[in-house]
Amino acid sequence: MTDKDAQYLAAVEAGDMETAQRMIDDAARDAGYGTYSHRRGDGKNVKATGWVVLFVDREKQNNLSYGPQEYLINELQLMEGIPDWMVDAYQEFIEWENAGLRNVEIMSREEAIENLAPPNIVAYAGAWDNPEWVSYLWENYENKLDGFVGVETPDGAAVWDAYSASIKSADPVTYDSNGNVIPLSRRFNQSSDSIYESAKSFLSLWN
Fold this sequence. Notes:
Number of strands: 7
Largest sheet: 7 strands, mixed
Strand order of the largest sheet: 4-5-6-2-1-3-7
Radius of gyration: 19 Å
Strand content: 5-15%
Helix content: 25-40%
Number of helices: 8
Structural class: alpha+beta
């Protein structure tokens, strides 16, 4: 057990949740995690539903919360910025969607980028509110999504592979299957198979 583990467990045993939460938040940041509030979606098969899971970045939205539970997402698993190939794919999708319609202007790259990285995901999730686009993306470009579970937006995240995402509870205290408090050093252990520590299935936290 590390010194920080001992300090964390002492805080939990003393009922000092403020200190425990602060230690969890610091450890999360050090491990590359951001704190998000769940906005929409339940992590079910995106290939079948076309719906991604939307999150709001608590820090960038002034601690706006969408529900009773918050989550920590490893931001290294998210695409930072919209890659050129995805912009091309979205313009291609819009052209395909509008095929046969008259007097339809071709979507500019700037507009495509704004739809893929909506500036205010709270008000409007842009392209990620369209399940047909998500299905099109998976059907035609799944190989390019390999290694990423979602995309960062200016104030949140759209997660399309919730099953592979290292999404964790942001609660100050979590427990293993035996009811023991998980020490600080194990909360962000990427190599663990325990759903209580690694949350390999988003639904293990959701349910």
